Amino acid sequence: MNEFRELLEENPVIAAVKSDEGVDACCRNGNVNIVFILYGNICTIADIVRKVKDAGKVAMVHVDLIDGLSGREIAVQYIRERTSADGIISTKPAVISEAGKLNMHTVLRVFVLDSMAYENIAKEIRLCRPDAVEILPGLMPKVIRKITDQHRTPIIAGGLISDREDVMGALQAGAVSVSSTNDRVWDM
Fold this sequence. Notes:
The protein is an alpha/beta fold. The chain is built from eight helices and eight strands.
């Protein structure tokens, strides 16, 4: 986990891609070192990951968003065996636990929509022990601060991050990194 935390701290902006054009743009961008892959299917994911890895980037696959894969632990094994991905992103604690057992980097993605979702974060962290937690939407400095004050797990702010003010607000609130599909943010 320390290795991944250091990587996040050294790269406060993470490229999140949801198309081939996004992959091409982040692969050309020297400021991008970590890529969250938010698209693909079982036939294309290995090639997408290979392109990211060939560009010298860390490839994190959001396994829940890969068409043709179930939201179960076997999907992690498939990504591990069929691609060169460095890690997994998921909203499912069981999937994160499986990826941890396979020595992959892990990011638990959490949508903080109400107080129940907020209160559930501690239980999910204890259950699956992710390397990092991605909080969405990322435009909630007060919530980010509360979570970082209560947990040692690195927090990544994602969703709706669109300008320098958003990036700085999340980082100043205690997030270690932000993820964004907005390529203008990748150069901040």
